[in-house]
């Protein structure tokens, strides 16, 4: 019964998403356009057998997951709060978690399509090798799921930071953009200054990128990583920690109404 | 249980910073009645109603709504209370039908969503996205979402703002039907005729205080209010006089004019006069 409610909520969320055309186009097409641009400009070899395009594509897959989970929710929820959508849900006997479950299902749905699309484009046009073994597929799956979960929970948690819908984009976009610059999406991570690497290592995106590189880049590239290995254990640990932190913040301080209606 | 009050409020207080919105308000709504809260802009109607709905925190006073403190709502309690807010929450990309069906699923014993859509007169728009609805149609949708859970107690904050006259009549009938089926209703309004047509009791609120509660016909002691007699004096000016005994005054005038009194009118205050006097005096 309650699970059914969550499923319905997820469907309603997905319906709303797919029906707002600009959201679909922006979310889905943006990473692809970025890949087209960057892969056409930079194609140098950054290590034996690895060119920049492959490196950048893995970063873009991670970025796509972050956009779907973090950016879209941290911007969309304040809009819904301002429009009184949240207030309206709160006036019904719907358990609060159903609202979050709906968002999670929506993000999962969009995330799957987004990643499939990116993979298809990258493999079809930019010579990305699909994961070579079952073990790599498994790593790909858990890094994506755990990373997307962390981003989703942090996105819901962060949605309480912008005070209104108008400021949401302005507050959220720079956070996401800065993370992309310092986490090894646009630049090879180990080329960045040490202090920047240390800052990036606090946040999930760096670990998502690293986890995905272990899937798509040759094993020889591991030696180029900061620790000289893929550090998959640490990837799992840090992404898991962000899930816990995000969830704790959601539970404690999610705001259902803006300050003008309290 | 066994309490015959659906809502009871004693000494309610709420301030926003330095603005005192509700200042020691007392109010009861009996089970089964339609209660209208009337008051000018900024009087504190929305603040009061949203405290009763569990949306806003109060600064003081005792409040019971269906035997619970609304500051600590439970899912069961929420299921028994229907809410139509003054400001609407928009789900732009969904259709009317999808939305009402979705909300029905939140409640333990909902009404048939399609029937609810018909009752608010939106059947023709059931497949339309809500962002394309007119103002009055959006308001009807708000009402549909408020009643689809078959509430025991229904709050409506200025429900008919934006309705055309016919829609308003239909809405009144809907409220009467719901009330006849046992729903207790508390609504706010700026329309005196609405309060008069629907409510068994009317409360007038001004500056965060309840000025009076009465049956619409007795508000401001209207039935016994002094009448105003006016007439034209021989030099052409209009003179008028308030009187508790207008009949005596008229016969005195008749004697003075030796027959017909020029321009004679005798009026008692309308509900509007009484209301304006009450909120002006507050
Ligand atoms: N969130 C808020 N923050 C600050 N002041 C508020 C807030 N909500 C209401 N007020 C103030 O409290 C007072 C009462 O407002 P309220 O909305 O309760 O009035 P109302 O009777 O519903 O008016 P209206 O008929 O215009 O809807 C007003 O002076 C208003 O400016
Ligand atoms: Mg109001």
UniProtKB/TrEMBL annotation, chain A:
<dbReference type="InterPro" id="IPR013525">
    <property type="entry name" value="ABC2_TM"/>
</dbReference>
<comment type="similarity">
    <text>Belongs to the ABC-2 integral membrane protein family.</text>
</comment>
<feature type="transmembrane region" description="Helical">
    <location>
        <begin position="170"/>
        <end position="189"/>
    </location>
</feature>
<protein>
    <recommendedName>
        <fullName>Transport permease protein</fullName>
    </recommendedName>
</protein>
<feature type="domain" description="ABC transmembrane type-2">
    <location>
        <begin position="22"/>
        <end position="257"/>
    </location>
</feature>
<keyword id="KW-1003">Cell membrane</keyword>
<keyword id="KW-0812">Transmembrane</keyword>
<dbReference type="InterPro" id="IPR000412">
    <property type="entry name" value="ABC_2_transport"/>
</dbReference>
<feature type="transmembrane region" description="Helical">
    <location>
        <begin position="235"/>
        <end position="254"/>
    </location>
</feature>
<keyword id="KW-0813">Transport</keyword>
<keyword id="KW-1133">Transmembrane helix</keyword>
<dbReference type="GO" id="GO:0140359">
    <property type="term" value="F:ABC-type transporter activity"/>
</dbReference>
<dbReference type="InterPro" id="IPR047817">
    <property type="entry name" value="ABC2_TM_bact-type"/>
</dbReference>
<dbReference type="InterPro" id="IPR051784">
    <property type="entry name" value="Nod_factor_ABC_transporter"/>
</dbReference>
<dbReference type="Pfam" id="PF01061">
    <property type="entry name" value="ABC2_membrane"/>
</dbReference>
<dbReference type="GO" id="GO:0046677">
    <property type="term" value="P:response to antibiotic"/>
</dbReference>
<dbReference type="GO" id="GO:0043190">
    <property type="term" value="C:ATP-binding cassette (ABC) transporter complex"/>
</dbReference>
<feature type="transmembrane region" description="Helical">
    <location>
        <begin position="23"/>
        <end position="43"/>
    </location>
</feature>
<feature type="transmembrane region" description="Helical">
    <location>
        <begin position="97"/>
        <end position="125"/>
    </location>
</feature>
<keyword id="KW-0472">Membrane</keyword>
<feature type="transmembrane region" description="Helical">
    <location>
        <begin position="55"/>
        <end position="77"/>
    </location>
</feature>
<keyword id="KW-0046">Antibiotic resistance</keyword>
Automatic annotation (TrEMBL), chain B:
<keyword id="KW-0046">Antibiotic resistance</keyword>
<dbReference type="InterPro" id="IPR017871">
    <property type="entry name" value="ABC_transporter-like_CS"/>
</dbReference>
<protein>
    <submittedName>
        <fullName>ABC transporter</fullName>
    </submittedName>
</protein>
<keyword id="KW-1003">Cell membrane</keyword>
<dbReference type="GO" id="GO:0016887">
    <property type="term" value="F:ATP hydrolysis activity"/>
</dbReference>
<keyword id="KW-0547">Nucleotide-binding</keyword>
<comment type="similarity">
    <text>Belongs to the ABC transporter superfamily.</text>
</comment>
<dbReference type="InterPro" id="IPR050763">
    <property type="entry name" value="ABC_transporter_ATP-binding"/>
</dbReference>
<dbReference type="Pfam" id="PF00005">
    <property type="entry name" value="ABC_tran"/>
</dbReference>
<keyword id="KW-1278">Translocase</keyword>
<dbReference type="GO" id="GO:0005886">
    <property type="term" value="C:plasma membrane"/>
</dbReference>
<dbReference type="InterPro" id="IPR003593">
    <property type="entry name" value="AAA+_ATPase"/>
</dbReference>
<dbReference type="GO" id="GO:0005524">
    <property type="term" value="F:ATP binding"/>
</dbReference>
<keyword id="KW-0813">Transport</keyword>
<keyword id="KW-0067">ATP-binding</keyword>
<dbReference type="InterPro" id="IPR027417">
    <property type="entry name" value="P-loop_NTPase"/>
</dbReference>
<dbReference type="GO" id="GO:0046677">
    <property type="term" value="P:response to antibiotic"/>
</dbReference>
<keyword id="KW-0472">Membrane</keyword>
<feature type="domain" description="ABC transporter">
    <location>
        <begin position="7"/>
        <end position="232"/>
    </location>
</feature>
<dbReference type="InterPro" id="IPR003439">
    <property type="entry name" value="ABC_transporter-like_ATP-bd"/>
</dbReference>
């Amino acid at each position: 019964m309650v699970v059914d409610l969550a499923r319905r909520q997820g469907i309603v969320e997905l319906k709303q998403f797919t029906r707002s055309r600009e959201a679909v186009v922006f979310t889905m097409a943006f990473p692809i356009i970025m890949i087209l641009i960057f892969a056409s400009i930079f194609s140098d070899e950054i290590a034996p057998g690895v060119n920049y395009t492959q490196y950048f594509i893995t970063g873009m897959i991670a970025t796509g997951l972050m956009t779907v989970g973090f950016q879209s929710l941290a911007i969309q929820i304040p809009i819904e709060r301002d429009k009184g959508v949240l207030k309206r849900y709160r006036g019904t006997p719907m358990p609060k978690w159903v609202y979050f479950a709906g968002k999670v299902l929506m993000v999962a749905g969009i995330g799957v399509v987004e990643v499939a699309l990116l993979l298809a484009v990258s493999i079809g046009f930019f010579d990305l090798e699909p994961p070579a073994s079952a073990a790599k597929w498994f790593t790909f799956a858990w890094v994506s799921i755990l990373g997307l979960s962390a981003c989703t929970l942090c996105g819901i948690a962060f949605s309480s930071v912008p005070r209104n819908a108008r400021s949401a984009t302005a507050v959220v976009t720079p956070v996401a953009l800065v993370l992309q610059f310092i986490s090894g999406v646009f630049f090879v991570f180990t080329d960045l200054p040490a202090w920047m690497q240390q800052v990036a290592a606090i946040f999930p995106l760096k670990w998502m990128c690293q986890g995905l590189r272990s899937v798509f880049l040759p094993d020889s590239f591991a030696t180029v990583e900061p620790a000289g290995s893929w550090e998959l254990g640490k990837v799992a640990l840090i992404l898991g920690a962000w899930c816990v932190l995000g969830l704790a913040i959601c539970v404690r301080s999610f705001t259902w109404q803006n300050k003008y209606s309290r | 249980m066994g309490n015959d009050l659906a809502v009871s409020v004693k000494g309610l207080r709420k301030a926003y910073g330095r603005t005192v919105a509700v200042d020691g308000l007392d109010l009861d709504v009996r089970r089964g009645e339609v209660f209208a809260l009337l008051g000018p802009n900024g009087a504190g109607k929305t603040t009061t109603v949203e405290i009763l709905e569990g949306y806003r925190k109060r600064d003081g006073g005792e409040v019971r709504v269906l035997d619970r403190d609304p500051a600590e709502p439970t899912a069961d309690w929420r299921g028994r209370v229907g809410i139509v807010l003054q400001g609407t929450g928009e789900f732009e990309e969904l259709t009317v039908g999808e939305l009402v069906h979705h909300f029905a699923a939140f409640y333990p014993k909902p009404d048939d969503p399609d029937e609810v859509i018909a009752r608010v007169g939106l059947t023709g728009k059931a497949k339309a996205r809500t962002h394309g609805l007119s103002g009055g149609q959006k308001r009807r949708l708000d009402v549909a979402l408020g009643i689809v859970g078959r509430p025991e107690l229904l709050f409506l904050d200025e429900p008919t703002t934006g309705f055309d006259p016919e829609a308003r009549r239909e809405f009144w009938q809907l409220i009467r039907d719901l009330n006849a089926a046992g729903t207790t209703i508390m609504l706010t309004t700026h329309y005196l005729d609405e309060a008069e047509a629907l409510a068994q009791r009317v409360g007038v609120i001004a500056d965060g205080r309840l000025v009076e509660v009465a049956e619409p016909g007795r508000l401001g002691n209207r039935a016994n209010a002094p009448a105003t007699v006016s007439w034209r004096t021989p030099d052409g000016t209009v003179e008028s006089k308030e009187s508790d005994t207008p009949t005596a005054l008229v016969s005195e005038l008749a004697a003075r004019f030796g027959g017909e009194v020029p321009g004679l009118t005798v009026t008692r205050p309308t509900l509007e006069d009484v209301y304006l006097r009450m909120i002006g005096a507050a």
